[in-house]
Write a structure and sequence with these properties.
The protein has 16 helices and 18 strands. The chain is globular. By secondary structure, the protein is of the alpha+beta class. It folds into four domains: about 90 residues, 2-Layer Sandwich (Uridine Diphospho-n-acetylenolpyruvylglucosamine Reductase, domain 2); about 120 residues, Uridine Diphospho-n-acetylenolpyruvylglucosamine Reductase, domain 3; about 120 residues, 2-Layer Sandwich (Alpha-Beta Plaits), CATH 3.30.70.2190; about 80 residues, 2-Layer Sandwich (Alpha-Beta Plaits). α1 packs antiparallel against α2, α8 runs antiparallel to α10 and α13 packs antiparallel against α14. A seven-stranded antiparallel beta sheet has the order 15-12-14-13-17-18-16, with helices on both faces. A five-stranded antiparallel beta sheet has the order 5-6-10-8-9. A four-stranded mixed beta sheet has the order 1-2-4-3, covered by helices on one side. It binds flavin-adenine dinucleotide (FAD).
Length: about 475
Amino acid sequence: MSHEKFLDELISTLGADVAQRGAEVPERYHTDWSGTPPQRPLALVRPRSTQEVSAVLRLCTAHKVAVVPQGGLTGLAGAAVPTEGAIALSLERMNSIESTDTRAGLMQVQAGVTLQAVQEAAVAAGMVFGVDLGARGSCQIGGNVSTNAGGNGVLQHGMMREQVLGLEVVLADGTVLPMLRPMLKNNTGYDLKQFFIGAEGTLGVVTRVLLRLRPAPQVTATVLAAMPNFDAALAVLRRMQARFGNSVAAYELMWDNFVQASLSWLRLNAPFDQRHPLLALINVDGKSETPHGGGLREDVQQVLEAAMEAGEVLDAIVAQSVAQAQTLWKLREAPAELNNHMHPPINFDVSLPQAEIGRFAQACEAAFSARWPGKHTLYFGHVGDGNLHVSVDGKTVGGECDAAEAELYRLVGEFQGSVSAEHGIGLHKKPYLQASRTPEELAVMRSIKQALDPLGLMNPGKIFEL
Ligand SMILES: Cc1cc2nc3c(=O)[nH]c(=O)nc-3n(C[C@H](O)[C@H](O)[C@H](O)COP(=O)(O)OP(=O)(O)OC[C@H]3O[C@@H](n4cnc5c(N)ncnc54)[C@H](O)[C@@H]3O)c2cc1C
């Protein structure tokens, strides 16, 4: 009954174009990419401005109605899935790139702009944006901020947090916090914007973001290298960093089972004549003429030759053109196909002490095979940042998804890792949050939540229970 009054007021305040009742909400807003069971929201609102977001939140506070912010719905932790009785607040119409300042290396955008649109606008302005990930065409900058997204560029530029110079946020009661001063240094009390980065929409709605852009490299050398084992892969990373320092822009490792899935799902040609235990995709940025005299590709080639002599690299392809580099990087795009080929995929995103990643993958393989005989696990990840992704086909563990999770997180605990490196906690990893955070840390998180959202209306039930 009270919901009817709320819905009438919502629609009369914002218009039927911005707010729709639950029965009319298309199914795509009922869940996200994580495969969480869908839930119809009480209503869908798609505001066009910060003022409209503020009006929605004021109304929700007055009627004590919960709000689930939604970006591109590519999240892998179920964090954007509506909770029962909550409205979904989609930022998709707030998708303007408001300004680009190449002298200052800044871009101001509305939160609903896609990552790819930001990347393309940065390139068009002669610069680059430091975050890249497979869902770039759909995920939004507001979602990237709210999950503190990582991806392929972390080694060089850090996670999303490092790309954010300012934020505009609307709090649960409709208060707008304009934290958009365009400067790196500002030690005037708490750096409030940091609370909202990685908060998964539980503290407020991100409406604008002031992003840092990076100078574009003159050239990028791309390598696909085959390695006999994880220790060799780590040794090659060290060689590359010793020679090129922070210009090593990406170091993505793919275990053979992942490579075979990628070749088959994406119908790609095998890059080498034979299979190898591990393949690394490596990007090195630089100038066309390096201080060492040769071109960047020749310098990279030299490092690879030394690694081959040491037995660390078995075979390698150095891309000779941008098109060939793009073809090599296609191998890394299999995660976009997981939902089509695994039934269902059980996705893990764990952080581990970097040197232990190889042993961890072996321990997982042994533990899973012992309990559920057969091959069912793909390993890949941003190994340069100590981040491993594991995808298990739910069918191959007889649908025992909870048991598979418990087994893997037990091993994460044993290896002193973290249960979420970059995807967040959302709904899926809630039971395991205390494995990576102490009771004292959780108590402080709850106090912050209480201070910013005393009625508990922002994305309730995500990350932790109050
Ligand atoms: C193929 C594929 C590859 C991926 N690769 C990576 C990767 O390499 N690295 C990585 O980190 N992630 C990766 N992801 C996960 C996902 O793309 C990221 O988490 C992304 O940042 C989510 O953005 P989104 O706009 O889709 O957010 P959504 O899924 O819509 O939402 C995610 C969370 O952010 C909140 N939220 C969204 N917008 C706002 C806003 N404006 N204000 C407040 N809260 C908001 C939601 O409530 C939710 O809690 C991948 C996903 C896919 C499908």
